[in-house]
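mind reviewing this fold:
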Amino acid sequence: MGTTIQSLERGLTILEILGNAGRPMVLNEIAEHFSLDRSSVFRLVATLVKSGFVIQDAETKQYSLGYKILQLSAALNSHSYVVDLLRPVIRTVQNQTNQNSHLAILDGDQVVFLAVEQPREHLSLHVSVGTREPSVVTALGKSLLAFLDEEELAKTLKNVRFEQYTPKSVMSASRLKKDLKAIRKSRLAFDDEEYRPGIVCFAAPVFDQKGEVLYSLGISGLREVIKPDQTRFGEIVKRAAEDASRLLGYTTRGNQ
């Protein structure tokens, strides 16, 4: 196991203590769980209060979990609901293509896998829920980047390091923007061995009821399997993303 940050571990422990207590606690009660002096525990708690993860009652001086915990919980529950709702679509894609099928979101300049369905046989690439990949060289990522507004895209690209994972990796913002323009028009992204040699991917945007793209749905597999039949695979992914969008309340009429 790698080196950890002790103060962060202690802060997370405080959140667990407050969560397990099921009631507000005074500082001394929290400090009893640590072999630290009271002032050190106070600084840890004060940091959590400042960031909104813990709140303190002005009268009783007792501490409890703050609104930031509720925000994170709401976000997790929201994504869990979407995954459950779209799981049948993701499985259909896997069954129709016999390739890895995924649902992902954008987190900064990376994509995070929320759901994964993999074939039982002929598994070409193992990925799991929580896997992170660079957005600029993956179909899942580019299908999400393509639908950011100009300000959001500029902010995201400001922090991007264009790395040459393979000879085909996108290495400049200008090249990426050209790709994104084509993706916005076709609503289909393609990763032609840009991140992993021998692996190609298709992905399409999933729209919600507001017409916003928060998710992307795609497949990945061996070049020699997908490329000979890439037109069919691309249509399956695009059609599935349209089905997923309808499940999230997207209608063409209401979002033109």
Summary: The longest strand covers residues 213-222. The two ends are 51 Å apart (CA to CA). The CA atoms of residues 98 and 119 lie 6 Å apart.
